[in-house]
Amino acid sequence: MSPKQFRKNTGCDFNFNTKYKKFKKNICNSPKGKLRFTLVEHHLEQTLPFLLKSSLKILDAGAGLGQFALKFARMGHKVIINDIADVLLKDVKETCSREKLNHNTVFNRQPLQQLLPGYRDKMDLVLLHAVLAWLHDPLAGLSSIAGCVKKNGYLSLLLYNKHALVIRNALSGNFSKILNDRLKGTGKTFTPPAPVYPQTVEKVIKQNNFKIISVKGIRIFYDYLEKTPANTGTSMADITKVENRFGLELPYIYMGRYVHYICKKI
Ligand SMILES: C[S@@+](CC[C@H](N)C(=O)[O-])C[C@H]1O[C@@H](n2cnc3c(N)ncnc32)[C@H](O)[C@@H]1O
Hints:
By secondary structure, this protein is α/β, with parallel strands linked by helices. Helices cover about 40% and strands about 20% of the residues. Helix 6 links the parallel strand 4 and strand 5 (about 150-160). S-adenosylmethionine binds near residues 13, 83, 113, 130 and 135.
């Protein structure tokens, strides 16, 4: 595909090549990144226990540094690792080679909106984690990727929660930003350019013939801590327990930095 076609097809979807080092250090390998992974992992394992037994066809769309893709490949699932950022895919490829996971992994560097028709109804599980808010048209992206899940298959959707942006800005006194809906990031930081409210996304999930079988708020309390956990004398183990417990309860679910949906195609 020519660069021109690429721009046309992806609009202003945000390619993470330019954020590779900071994303790896400040997001994936940071305490908050590890907590996000642990909370989502726990939700998946509790809700879909068969993941620990059978071998499935899994697509990680917008996989980034492939934390979940690698986890599932290590467990013996067949995983397609998709992203538009070749620098990040190269990093994941190196891990796959080092750990001899090549037989379980396929790499795909395409905009996720182009996975149809090739992957229509093919996947047992599609992961779409923290990607929507980086797309030019998040809802169209969601509808497109939904087509890759087969009947009775699952979608794991991790949504960057716009409600959490409202709360964070209110706590910082940025009320005019909230009133003028200036909550979007510019792409310079890790505040995404197209955050969406959960209720908007839930409508689109249902329109695409999915039943939401479990919803969990991810990092409900951790992101609002005034002091670092070390300064409060709190252990990450205790924080994780509290997050896991209240993450499944209203009203906390919708206060999380992310909302994690596990959905079944009907
Ligand atoms: C915030 S990162 C999330 C990465 C990973 N899923 C995670 O949860 O850590 C968003 C990723 O989406 C990728 N991305 C953005 N637009 C995309 C598109 N149209 N198709 C595929 N990947 C895309 C970016 O390159 C980036 O790696």
